[in-house]
Amino acid sequence: MDAQQTLRTEVEQLVRVHGRTRTALMPILQDLNRAHSYISEDAMLAVSDALNVPRAEVYGVATFYSYFSVKPRGTYVIRICRTISCAKQGDYHPAIAALFDELGIGMGETTSDGMFTIEQTNCIGMCDQGPAMMVNEIPHIKLTEASVRSILNEYRHAALAAKKAQ
Amino acid sequence: MDPKAVHGFVGNKLSFSEVTPRDGIRMAAEMAPEDVVAIIGASGLRGRGGAGFPTGKKWEFARGQEGSPKYIICNADEGEPGTFKDRLILTDFPELVFAGMAIAGRAVGAEFGILYLRAEYGWLREHLDAALERCRVANTLGNNILGASDFSFDISIRMGSGAYVCGEETALLESLEGRRGDARNRIPFPVQAGYLGKPTVVNNVETLAWVPCIMVKGPSWFAAMGTRKAPGAWLFCVSGDCKRPGIYEYPFGTSLRQILSDVGAENAKAVQVGGASGTCVPPAQFDRTMTPGDLATGGSIIVFGPGQDMFAVAENFQHFFCDESCGQCIPCRLGNQRMLEAIGRMRKDGLTVDGERNVRQLAQTMTVASKCGLGQMSARAFLSILNNFSGELPGHV
């Protein structure tokens, strides 16, 4: 099966879970975005055909929400909160500097091994425990330069372990 | 992930911890729906998302609608900067929120509930699904709830995907229907034509959590907590430059000064009340009270200590609105960008008479002409900082 056909099969499976209705569009895009770390053009076409929703509208939805991406991203998407309660903590700038230094990339970039992407995000509801960031769906709080480095190492180890298990 | 890992500090005893959700549902099950609406109406409970609409009125409107099915939607798209009470409520009291939804369903004649959870709280999903399952097993959700033959209600959870504007109820409905989160025009209101065009009640997490408490303890218990004009208590989320950030429950009418003293922020230079779309309060006004009509709030209190550059704060908030504007109406989409540029210029070059006039005109245009609350409110923080802290700008004499 070619890649496009594989995607269409995957979308059909998601349709069976979420239904063949317009209200299923968000849940289906959410699952695709999670599984592939982004929503490819082929994926959008497959969803458009499966739900009979115009391609422009699928694209419109896929590009509206900040958690969706239509470009490839790392396995782990790091979203560091840039809103005021986090951003004015003393540890905020050292924590971001540690992210950049540890991964060798800047804001909005992805590491060459495809493992990490760093993004900024708005308030993630951890204002009382900032600075904070999400790594995919998991929040990390009270960040310091040191804790950022050890968090990244944990994800590196998890990725290695997952690779070995395959 | 265990939600307790990011639980955070709770500064005083919360009323929510004193109520068994099941008792609230039982009372509603044994009562006529009209009487449930009447009890919530009599309590004076108002929406806790920020707009403060009377909950009883909303339910009464929805109850009077012909359409079917009707829907109860819990707005858990908490995104206002400095707000994190839904995080705590959904961690510690999810069954109270579900009970509130079921009671709302009983009151307006709805059997379907949807909890719209922001993407950033995806880590709560497993915890909430488990709580839903417990409710079904205990028959506080499902068919013939607690044996009442005419009371069935169940809840599904739907996720957001990262968009502040979806906390606005009509944008939330668009998102649930599989569209971009573009706010709708009203009329019709959601209670008339909401989710899939059907009568829909959209209530905030905290609003719904108070519902079973009011059922169990009575509307007069609730009303007695606040002032005559503003009954009840509220959860406040305190962050920023203070010794004890966290969640605090206060009755309406509590002064800002009292709160600052409790959280260890007596030396505050300014306090942002109501998040990015709220107002910045200078020390001369710390005796103002947390009451609709005085300091209205969605529960967010961000403290700024003596060292903070207030126009850097304004710039941060403005950046937030530029990111989060949905882009469908020009006053908000372009207005927020021009405002951000103006703040940047001001921080660099100071304020000219022309510059101030222009920026105030822009703020007024955004406030008057934006389609939804996002654009209508986004100049407030900047204006309150400009009005109270313009002395911090360069070249000021």
| Unreliable stretches of chain A | none
* Order of secondary-structure elements of chain A: HHHHEHHEEEH
Number of strands of chain B: 9
Using the coordinates shown, work out and report the CATH topology of the largest domain in chain B: Rossmann fold
Beta content of chain B: 5-15%
- How many strands, which pairing sense, and closed or not: the largest β-sheet of chain B? 5 strands, mixed
Question: What would CATH call the architecture of the largest domain in chain B?
Answer: 3-Layer(aba) Sandwich
Unreliable segments of chain B (pLDDT under 50, ≥5 consecutive)?
Answer: none
Query: CATH superfamily of the largest domain in chain A, called what?
Result: Glutaredoxin
Class of secondary structure makeup of chain A: alpha+beta
Rounded Rg of chain B: 21 Å
- Estimate the mean pLDDT confidence of chain B: 96
**DSSP strand count of chain A:** 4
Please indicate the percent range of residues of chain A in DSSP E strands (runs of 2 or more).
5-15%
Domain NADH-ubiquinone oxidoreductase 51kDa subunit iron-sulphur binding (chain B): 311-357
Organism (chain B): Rhizomicrobium electricum
Keywords (chain B): 4Fe-4S, Iron, Iron-sulfur, Metal-binding
Pfam family, one (chain B): NADH_4Fe-4S
Summarize the structure.
The complex is a heterodimer of chains A (166) and B (397). With 166 residues, chain A is α+β, with helices and mostly antiparallel strands.
